[in-house]
């Protein structure tokens, strides 16, 4: 099978496979459509192969390599033939980029393909900025926002300045830095249900820090963290709107209520 | 009390719950303030990152030739007039140390801080055998008086507030009277200094650990800020070094490289106040120093980690950076981990030393946020190794059955797109409809772990792939 | 099998070998042990001349040591006497039996009571020289021996160290290299001292003078010349 390597210079109209991720698929498809819009605005042809489901991280992080591989094979198969694979999640993109090569090491049928996929895979916002060199998005968001750096994107993929660079170009938006932005929110996949009390302490601290900034909106790049933070904010009665950064960058917040809140 | 004699790692979850509800502990943990100082120290040294790479390579090289370096080290220890004692198990090490102490008729021994001493429950053993062990590091002294194990590697009494220290001193230092006022750390330090000075002067043997063993010279190196380790090894007749094989580095130059990382990573200091390189007993013309120098080299499970996916853990220099930066450690403190080593490094090391059946909860108590690895001076891939322990646990079928079944069911569906969509679409449609008014659920069947503390945001209703298919039609 | 053989065999098995490494590997490792090759030495440990002296002073003070500079050897006794007075300490000290120290004109300060030898529990002030000062962290490097009892570094509440500018080196590695020039074996103890004793063990509040000296005072003999090289 002929494998494509990632192009060295940006193609005029790269063919991008959108890895929707299982959480976005189920809970907040709008994030997926925000990603589609951002990618198309940047000149990409976007497809979302129907056979994709999950990167396999829940099994992988539970020590179940066999099931992790079985699920991950589906992703390797699904994203054959794209110039790039882009996910609106640092965690899922990090799984493919950083962990698939290890997961498939020694697997005759999949190792090379997994490595190749890893090279082509990117987190959405860093893809826009670092690969497509997008400098500005056409969007408006009236309000003060703060930004939480989700752990995998930050530490596995170096996603830090890219969302800030694009957010600063959104009309009407003021970005206020979140103290402790790099501290984990306590989601951690199955961690948050295995150790709910510790997770609760971590997310409570996070929400308190976010509230202290005075920003009305808390953004992040991973829906897992956002479900955790939004769920805590509503439970704690903290007046904070949680949104995926792509929703704001795509200008899709008008008709879309914040995560975990009803339409006004 | 000693964790080595009674591990509670199995009860991590309950321990953690209790810790989160313990207001005194939570207040004490709030004083842990090394992270900012570390960041400043790292910023002052532009070569810090390059030094991390070199330090990792030095230890990897040493581990790869550990037998050679151990033998070379031993030869130099003997050449300088010291003695080396090889011990496989805690029992062998305790017996060796007891015999050494008895050989000089020791009634009281001073102790420099050693985590390995905790590993082998040395103090209770010496006490049972009629020898008084005196911990001399201030933090260790405080918790020895309180009958507690350390909760942090370099700040062993971080879980204790100053009011608790005062109460302990009032109770245990009866000779100073029971009505004096002890309110400030300064006063407590002075009192401990006075008492411990007497203990230093009358000790018959001193037991320290080692931060490094140097193969080139047969030296042991300790670092302290208090100077207690030096008084421990300098004043008595006999100095006993209790160390493990992975403390070895080839040369003084190699030790110097890693020392540049140690204090900066630990406390954010440029260098610890006292870095002491000891080689053998006092020389003939020396006016002071111990007449005997013994190294007790203990395996206690390290060698079984060599050549496995856990070998990288043997690079650890016990700086505590991973503890200091860990949100889980900061939330629950060290005792919740239930054995000698807490935090991320403990979550990797403990299953290796006491078994994953005993300590499997620890590598599970991580969000894999990766902060520990990012600050580890020795670049130990801690999350990766915690995942490896989860794999061992899973393979041995030690993880809870319900979690295993759930995972199996999910994995079955997650590789069958049509089945998966057929299951998830109606579920999301129902949840989307039910959650529309509030936007979230305060309660959901089977999601108690989530909804006990937070709401579950409601899904939008249709799934992405459903909408995408409709849009493409 | 005895513990030693058992442990070594265990290591070899884990490393995938039956016995010790082959002769060629052993020779390479021996050469590495004897080569004293330096790893990366930070730039601040490689400075020279005046810059090195100033770096030492800056970093020693950063470590909370105090430091007084004198222009010549003749000023040392006065600087020591002044320091003791400034700290309200009696003019009484225990000095290392070190020829280097004997060379200073102590008779010029007849009120200073000087005893020589190792430290006794009641000694309040210890005075020593240093084998070297290390600029990169303001560290003093002292060797145990007949002329420098280690107890002087730890027992008295005040430790005064006289260092000459030409004894200041850049890095720890420079210290090892200098030591190897004068001896083929290490002394019983090499003490690297960076500031006075301290503890933060009670609620992380920094307190000086935990078990070792409360004060570390450095008298730097520095004539201001472009020093820093061995003379």
Q: Could you characterize what this model shows?
A:
The complex is a heterotrimer of chains A (264), B (473) and C (231). Chain A has 264 residues and is α/β, with parallel strands linked by helices. Helix content of chain A is 47%, strand content 13%. Chain A folds into two domains: 15-130, Rossmann fold (3-Layer(aba) Sandwich), CATH 3.40.50; 134-249, Rossmann fold (3-Layer(aba) Sandwich). In chain A, α12 links the parallel β7 and β8. Chain A is globular and about 55 Å long. With 473 residues, chain B is of the alpha/beta class. Chain B has three domains: 46-300, 3-Layer(aba) Sandwich (Rossmann fold); 304-395, Fumarate Reductase Iron-sulfur Protein, Chain B, domain 2 (Orthogonal Bundle), CATH 1.10.1060; 414-472, no CATH class. In chain B, α10 crosses α11 (185-202). In chain C, β10 and β11 (207-208) form a beta hairpin. The radius of gyration of chain C is 21 Å and the shape is elongated. With 231 residues, chain C is an alpha/beta fold. In chain C, strands 1-12-7-4-2-3 form a six-stranded parallel sheet, with helices on both faces. A four-stranded mixed sheet of chain C has the order 8-5-6-9. Chain C has helices spanning 3-14, 23-35, 49-62, 76-86, 99-102, 151-154, 172-182; strands at residues 66-70, 92-95, 113-116, 125-129, 132-134, 139-143, 158-164, 168-169, 189-193, 198-199, 207-208, 215-221. Chain C is built from seven helices and twelve strands. Chains in contact: A-B, B-C. Chains B and C meet through α4, α5, α9, α11 and α12 of B and α1, α2, α6, α7 and β9 of C.
Structural class of chain A, by secondary structure, is alpha/beta
> Which geometry of chain A do the CA atoms define?
globular
- Beta fraction of the residues of chain C? 15-25%
Number of domains of chain C: 2
Element-by-element helix/strand order of chain A: EHHEHHEHHEHEHHEHHEHEH
Strand content of chain A: 5-15%
What are the salient characteristics of this protein?
heterotrimer; A: 264 residues; alpha/beta; Rossmann fold; 2 domains; four-stranded parallel beta sheet; 13 helices; 8 strands; 47% helix; C: 231 residues; six-stranded parallel beta sheet; 7 helices; 30% helix; 22% strand; elongated
Gist?
The complex is a heterotrimer of chains A (264), B (473) and C (231). Chain B is of the alpha/beta class and 473 residues long.
């Amino acid at each position: 099978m002929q494998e494509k390597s990632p192009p060295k210079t940006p193609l005029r109209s790269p063919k991008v496979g959108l890895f929707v991720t299982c959480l976005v698929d189920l809970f907040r498809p709008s994030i997926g459509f925000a990603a589609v819009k951002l990618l198309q605005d940047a000149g990409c042809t976007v497809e979302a192969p129907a056979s994709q489901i999950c990167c396999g991280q829940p099994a992988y992080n539970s020590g179940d390599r066999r099931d992790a591989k079985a699920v991950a094979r589906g992703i390797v198969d699904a994203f054959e033939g794209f110039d790039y694979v882009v996910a609106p999640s640092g965690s899922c993109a990090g799984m493919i980029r950083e962990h698939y090569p290890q997961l498939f090491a020694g697997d005759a049928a999949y190792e090379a393909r997994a490595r190749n996929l890893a090279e082509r895979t990117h987190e959405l916002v860093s893809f826009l900025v670092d690969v497509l060199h997008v400098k500005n998005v056409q969007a408006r968001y009236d309000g003060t926002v703060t930004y939480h750096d989700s752990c995998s994107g930050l530490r596995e993929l170096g996603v830090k300045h890219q969302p800030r660079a694009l957010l600063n170009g959104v009309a009407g938006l003021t970005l206020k830095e979140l103290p402790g932005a790099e501290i984990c929110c306590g989601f951690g996949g199955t961690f948050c249900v295995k150790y709910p009390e510790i997770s609760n302490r971590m997310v409570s601290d996070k929400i308190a820090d976010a509230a202290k900034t005075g920003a009305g909106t808390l953004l992040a790049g991973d829906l897992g963290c956002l479900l955790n933070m939004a769920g805590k904010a509503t439970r704690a009665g903290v007046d904070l709107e949680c949104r995926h950064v792509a929703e704001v960058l795509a200008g899709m917040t008008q008709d879309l209520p914040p995560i975990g809140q009803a339409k006004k | 009390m000693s964790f080595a004699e009674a591990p509670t790692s199995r009860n991590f979850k309950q321990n953690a719950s209790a810790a989160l509800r313990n207001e005194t502990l939570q207040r004490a943990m709030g004083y842990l303030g090394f992270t900012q100082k570390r960041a400043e120290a790292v910023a002052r040294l532009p070569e810090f990152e390059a030094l991390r790479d070199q330090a990792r390579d030095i230890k990897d090289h040493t581990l790869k030739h550990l037998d050679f370096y151990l033998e070379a080290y031993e030869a130099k220890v003997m050449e300088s007039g010291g003695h080396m004692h090889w011990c496989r198990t805690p029992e062998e090490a305790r017996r060796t140390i007891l015999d050494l102490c008895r050989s000089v008729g020791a009634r009281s021994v001073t102790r420099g801080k050693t985590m390995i001493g905790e590993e082998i429950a040395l103090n209770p053993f010496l006490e049972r055998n009629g020898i008084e062990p005196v911990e001399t590091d201030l933090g260790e002294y405080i918790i020895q008086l309180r009958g507690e194990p350390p909760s942090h590697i370099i700040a062993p009494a971080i879980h204790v507030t100053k009011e608790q220290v005062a109460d302990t001193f009032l109770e245990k230092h009866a000779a100073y009277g029971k009505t004096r006022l002890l309110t400030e750390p300064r006063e407590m330090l002075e009192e401990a200094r006075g008492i411990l000075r007497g203990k230093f002067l009358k000790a018959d043997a001193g037991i320290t650990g080692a931060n490094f063993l140097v193969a080139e010279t047969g030296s042991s190196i300790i670092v302290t800020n208090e100077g207690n380790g030096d008084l421990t090894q300098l004043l008595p007749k006999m100095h006993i070094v209790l160390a493990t094989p992975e403390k070895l580095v080839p040369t003084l130059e190699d030790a110097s490289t890693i020392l540049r990382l140690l204090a900066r990573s630990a406390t954010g200091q440029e260098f610890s106040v006292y870095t002491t390189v000891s080689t053998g007993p006092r020389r003939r013309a020396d006016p002071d120093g111990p007449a005997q120098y013994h190294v007790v080299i203990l395996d206690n499970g390290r060698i079984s980690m060599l050549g496995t996916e856990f070998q990288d853990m043997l690079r650890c220099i016990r700086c505590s950076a991973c503890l200091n930066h860990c949100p889980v450690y900061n939330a629950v403190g060290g005792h919740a981990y239930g054995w000698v080593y807490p935090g991320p490094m403990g979550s990797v090391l403990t299953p290796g030393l006491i078994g994953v059946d005993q300590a499997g909860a620890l590598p599970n108590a991580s969000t894999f946020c990766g902060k520990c690895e990012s600050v580890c001076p020795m670049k130990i891939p801690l999350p990766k190794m915690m995942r490896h322990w989860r794999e061992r646990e899973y393979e041995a079928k030690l993880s809870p059955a319900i979690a295993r079944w759930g995972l199996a069911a999910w994995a079955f569906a997650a590789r069958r797109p049509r089945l998966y969509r057929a299951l998830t679409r109606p579920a999301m449609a129902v949840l989307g409809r039910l959650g529309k008014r509030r936007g979230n659920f305060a309660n959901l069947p089977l999601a108690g772990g989530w909804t006990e503390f937070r709401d579950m945001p409601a899904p939008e209703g249709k799934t992405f792939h459903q909408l995408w298919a409709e849009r493409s039609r | 099998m005895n513990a030693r053989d058992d442990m070594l065999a265990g290591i070899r098995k884990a490393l995938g070998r039956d016995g010790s490494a082959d002769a060629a590997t052993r020779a390479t490792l021996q050469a590495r042990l004897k080569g004293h090759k330096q790893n990366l030495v930070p730039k601040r440990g490689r400075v020279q001349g005046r810059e090195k002296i100033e770096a030492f002073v800056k970093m020693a003070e950063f470590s909370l040591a105090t430091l007084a500079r004198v222009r010549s050897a003749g000023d040392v006794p006065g600087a020591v006497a002044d320091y003791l007075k400034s700290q309200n300490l009696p003019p009484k000290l225990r000095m290392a039996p070190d020829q280097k120290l004997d060379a200073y004109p102590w008779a010029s300060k007849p009120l200073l009571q000087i005893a020589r030898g190792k430290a006794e529990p009641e000694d309040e002030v210890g005075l020593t020289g240093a084998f070297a000062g290390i600029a990169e962290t303001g560290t003093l490097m002292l060797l145990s021996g007949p002329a420098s009892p280690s107890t002087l570094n730890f027992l008295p509440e005040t430790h005064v160290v006289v260092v000459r500018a030409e004894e200041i080196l850049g890095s720890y590695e420079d210290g090892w290299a200098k030591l190897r020039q004068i001896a083929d074996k290490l002394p019983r103890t090499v003490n690297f001292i960076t500031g006075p004793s301290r503890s933060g063990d009670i609620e992380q509040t920094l307190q000086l003078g935990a078990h070792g000296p409360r004060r570390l005072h450095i008298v730097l003999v520095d004539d201001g010349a472009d020093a820093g090289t061995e003379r």
